[in-house]
Design a protein that fits this description.
With 231 residues, the chain is α/β, with parallel strands linked by helices. Helices cover 38% and strands 10% of the residues. A 6-stranded mixed sheet has the order 3-2-1-4-6-5, with helices on both faces. Bound molecules: iron/sulfur cluster. Iron/sulfur cluster binds next to helix 7. Iron/sulfur cluster (SF4) is lined by residues 62, 64, 105, 109, 112-113, 116-117, 194-195, 197-198, 221.
């Protein structure tokens, strides 16, 4: 039995702040949190700031984020005292267009996500021991089996998911009670915010991620895709 097998049952059901503090104690300085400024990410940045945890926080700046996301980035830094580093792709949007044609996200969103998100993330995670994510089990079928601490086979790291057992209502309650800034796009019908070209508002009753890559049969950028056993 590994150390993770032993610690995971103890951490299941613990408040996210307790999980984060354990992760910082166990892995700092080789632990990072990649936030996409979703509601859950704002919760975690706030919790990291409140306890001044030694966790390196960064965001994948694809170059095509919403203006509102860039504004929230600065506001959250000022509010929490947490510096959120920019991790950028090798090529700018213009360079990518020159190499592979304009608006790659329309023709091959998987390739675009690979170049602008997955590869930069992989580089940012090199040399780390653990990374924190803001995923919740009830967001997608792929995330339904996520554990609070697990081994991430894709990146060869320990993956810590402090909010995995929280519901959307839990997240909303924390944000309200603690006055944490969030993207104004959520009040305009967006349920999940990513890159501007690939994000649309949701209609009433739609799955919260239906607005991402609408009509393209894609629900994940590839970062949180889980490795299937025996495949
Ligand atoms: Fe490209 Fe869209 Fe993926 Fe952003 S979300 S990296 S624009 S395909």
């Amino acid at each position: 039995m590994t150390e993770l097998d032993l610690v995971t049952p103890e951490l299941e059901g613990q408040p996210p702040g307790v999980v984060l503090a354990w992760a910082a104690r166990r892995f700092a300085p080789r632990i990072v949190f990649a936030t996409g400024f979703g509601l859950e990410g704002c919760v975690l940045v706030d919790l990291i700031g409140r306890s001044a945890l030694p966790i390196d926080v960064f965001t994948l700046d694809t170059g095509v984020l919403f203006r509102e996301t860039y504004e929230l980035w600065r506001e959250l830094e000022a509010r929490t005292g947490v510096t959120i580093r920019a991790v950028r792709p090798e090529r700018t949007i213009e360079e990518q267009a020159s190499d592979l044609g304009p608006e790659l996200w329309r023709r091959d969103p998987d390739r675009c996500c690979e170049l602008r998100k997955v590869l930069p993330l992989r580089a940012a995670l090199a040399g780390q021991e653990a990374w924190i994510t803001a995923i919740r089990r009830d967001q997608t079928p792929e995330r339904a089996t996520a554990r609070v601490v697990e081994r991430d086979e894709r990146f060869g790291l320990v993956k810590v998911n402090p909010l995995v057992a929280w519901s959307a209502a839990d997240v909303g309650r924390y944000l309200r009670e603690n006055g944490v800034p969030t993207s104004p796009l959520f009040e305009r019908g967006y349920a999940s915010v990513g890159c501007e070209p690939c994000t649309t508002p949701c209609r009433p009753g739609e799955d919260p991620r239906a607005g991402r890559w609408r009509g393209q049969g894609k629900t994940e950028c590839g970062i949180h895709r889980r490795v299937k056993k025996n495949s």
